[in-house]
């Protein structure tokens, strides 16, 4: 946890200026190095750093309002608000040191006062110099008991609790009191606009939220305190912890036909404190990606960790299924899912002609798109049925030739006809990668 200080804006700083000093020709006048508040702006204490060629014997500070409104004629004259001369040497030497007061000032108004310092040394030399920074006489807000728990939320403990207590010290009274019934602007680790939180009568505030930022984020409060004021606050960092996940498929292989999706389903789990548990509300991705295309589905798990999504693939292939990572989740390993897509086929231009000795000649074209079935699948069966409806039997098997996809693959063969009149058709049996196809039946009369 790192401390920081925020200072109210709009404060007028003094302008460096030196009033002509009285000095002998042989010695130099004391030099003001720095002057301003000592410690917190609410301390009411002053400090002066100076040096000279002989011991500095007197230090006097004169305070004026920042706008010069002390003039009796209203013209901005420099009538003093306070004169301070109870400085003592707090560090260094009397020729080069730091002088500070021990009695807090009790002034009527908060301000950044113009500060003019008179210095006198042992040689009798004097100087009068206006400080470049002035004297900040402000209230100070201090944060106590700041707590952010947990700083490392995980999947099972995503809520973060923030608490703290503010006090305010006023230099006009020297009293420190709770910042009661005040607004605190709380920046959470999720980022975005600050969240307003109200303190109680003891200056305490509490707030709880769910960490949703994907990664580390800061938490810091700011008390709404009218300027001029300084606020001493703090910052904590919240970093979520990711848990391991896994996906269990209902099956590792599915089949469908071209143009129809498959349903990818299973269960997602997350590693709990002791064992795997159902993972609710997580996104599961099933992705197929190849040179010939891509397909994806992203179902979200239910309260039991179950998921189901439709995946439409134009070709057979292997999809990879995994739980996607997130704020509290590591992505799971990929589970392969084989999807067999039976591509559409058709048979056209089928004819059967009668030759000599009851020999029949059958021919037609097999259409399988841009690809040719493998050797084991690339077969067309010529079938016979007496009534054209039942009892289809294979009388011969033909192998289509290779061809242009638009023309179809030609098959052609001659065989002996069964006795009597009957009906003939061509059948492509198909496979996991190809849909079955049938030609229209052809009636061949008795010869």
From TrEMBL:
**In the record, which residues are listed under signal peptide?**
1-25
Sorted alphabetically, the keyword list is:
Signal
Protein name (Swiss-Prot/TrEMBL): Uncharacterized protein
């Amino acid at each position: 946890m790192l401390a920081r200080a925020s200072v109210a804006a709009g404060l007028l700083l003094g302008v460096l200026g030196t009033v002509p000093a009285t000095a002998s020709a042989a010695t130099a006048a004391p030099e003001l190095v720095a002057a301003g508040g000592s410690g917190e702006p609410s301390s009411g204490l002053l400090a002066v750093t100076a040096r000279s060629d002989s011991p500095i014997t007197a230090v006097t500070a004169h305070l004026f309002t920042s706008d010069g409104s002390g003039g009796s004629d209203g013209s901005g004259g420099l009538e003093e608000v306070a004169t301070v001369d109870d400085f003592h040497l707090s560090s260094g030497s009397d020729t080069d040191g730091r002088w500070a007061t021990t009695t807090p000032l009790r002034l009527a108004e908060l301000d950044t006062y113009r500060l003019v310092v008179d210095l006198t040394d042992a040689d009798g030399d004097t100087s009068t110099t206006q400080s470049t920074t002035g004297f900040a006489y402000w209230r100070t807000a201090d944060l106590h008991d700041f707590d952010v728990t947990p700083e490392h939320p995980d999947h099972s403990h995503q809520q973060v609790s923030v608490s703290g207590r503010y006090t305010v010290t006023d230099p006009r009274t020297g009293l420190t009191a709770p910042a009661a019934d005040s607004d605190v602007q709380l920046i959470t680790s999720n980022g975005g606009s600050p969240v307003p939180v109200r303190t109680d009568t003891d200056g305490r505030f509490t707030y709880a939220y769910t960490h949703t930022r994907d990664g580390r984020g800061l938490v810091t409060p700011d008390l709404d305190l009218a300027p001029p004021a300084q606020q001493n606050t703090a910052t904590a960092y919240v970093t979520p912890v990711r848990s391991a996940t896994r996906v269990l498929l209902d099956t590792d292989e599915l089949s469908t036909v071209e143009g129809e999706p498959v349903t990818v389903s299973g269960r997602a789990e997350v590693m709990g404190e002791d064992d795997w548990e159902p993972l609710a509300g997580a996104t599961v991705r099933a992705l197929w990606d190849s040179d010939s295309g891509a397909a994806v589905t992203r179902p979200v798990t239910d309260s039991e960790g179950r998921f189901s999504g439709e995946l439409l693939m134009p070709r057979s292939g292997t999809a990879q299924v995994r739980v996607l990572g997130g704020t509290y989740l590591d992505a799971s390993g990929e589970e392969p899912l084989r999807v067999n897509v039976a591509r559409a086929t058709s048979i056209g231009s089928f004819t059967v002609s009668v030759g000599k000795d009851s020999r029949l000649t059958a021919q037609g074209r097999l259409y399988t798109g841009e690809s040719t079935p493998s050797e084991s699948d690339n077969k067309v069966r010529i079938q016979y049925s007496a009534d054209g409806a039942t009892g289809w039997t294979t009388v011969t098997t033909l192998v289509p030739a290779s061809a242009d996809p638009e023309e179809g693959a030609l098959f052609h063969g001659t065989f002996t006809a069964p006795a009597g009149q009957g009906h003939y058709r061509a059948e492509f049996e198909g496979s996991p990668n190809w849909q079955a196809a049938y030609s229209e039946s052809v009636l061949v009369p008795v010869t």
